[in-house]
Amino acid sequence: MLNPQEFVACIKENGGNFFAGVPDSLLKELCSCIAHTSQPGEHVIAANEGGAVALALGYHLATRKIPLVYLQNSGLGNVVNPLLSLVDTDVYSVPMLFVIGWRGEPGVHDEPQHKKQGRVMLPMLDAMGIPFFVLGPDLDHAETIVKDAFAHVRRTSAPCALVIKKGTFSAYAAPQLKKADFSLSREQAIQQVMDVLAEQDVLVSTTGMPSREVYEYRSKRGKGHQRDFLTVGGMGHASQIALGIALQRPERAVYCLDGDGALLMHMGALALNGTLRPMNFKHIVLNNGAHDSVGGQPTVALDIDILGIARATGYARVARARTESELRSCLQDLKDSPGPSLLEIYVRCGARKDLGRPASTPIQNKNAFMDFLESPR
Ligand SMILES: Cc1ncc(C[n+]2csc(CCOP(=O)(O)OP(=O)(O)O)c2C)c(N)n1
Q1: Looking at CB atoms within 10 Å, which of 292, 331, 340, 373 has the fewest?
Q2: What is the pLDDT of residue 174?
């Protein structure tokens, strides 16, 4: 296994002193080492992976140095546009090193949303003309690879990627970051929300653990999964899926359960939700100030005024809940009043160790959801 500290030291020895990215569970140990060992201004957790590429580009323009961009391969799609239309040798020819977590590697068990991306990642890098080195737990010459990768980036003034297999990095003992200590857990908040939904209401839940918590609570209540669309991939797009449904089915209340990391990832969605004014659209943001599902790396969401942004983009009602009783009254109001509405719930980080994963397939879930949407009120 690679020691994250030695790996980061090696990156720095080769001249890599700026890191931007979106965290990944497979790169969790590396991410916490980068966060812990970087000085202010040397590391930015970006809103999305395309933004990380842009930050890296800006860093290079200002310093002539080589930045490092880290991401889960799910984020490759977000990277493609700035990469091909700015960073590429046909355009500005910008040197940068990518570190990409390989979810869905063929032959390694993973969730359905990672399978296709896992299969096509190396061909995608090939098609984009990005040379790559694959790093796994058995590797004993990572230092040479990092050196070669930097040399290549320098020589060509173009990107190069290090693709990281599952289990490559050993544990990094980071000092515990101070986390917000809210009284509600995300799972409690989700259950409270689901308890107040009417029979015909539908729910679109965001990527990561929130969707797993939704699925498990429905299973526990034995009511089937037809009311829920789980946004298992496409992080940041849950509210636009909900908007797409809400606009077509104005007679049904459509709830979107969002995460703060996901909200930040494609925040432009708020402007559409507010401006198109679907009265049946109810947006709930579970704000723990972190990418909890992939290791708890911080977001800036507790430092910004999400309600103010929603209000400014045209949401009809906004509210915030921090406790169970505040949530009870906010949910009643959300239910009774026309939207578009946004309810922000402050929740603490953490999930149950034994949290399950959906037992049915995405296609089974989709079909049940569509049939349910068609059923008469
Ligand atoms: C485009 C993309 N980038 C990164 C990921 C990896 N990922 C899955 S869940 C998650 C964190 C989500 O954070 P948030 O929305 O705040 O919800 P929380 O887990 O904190 O409840 C990340 C980064 C992904 N699935 N897709």
Answers
A1: 373
A2: 81
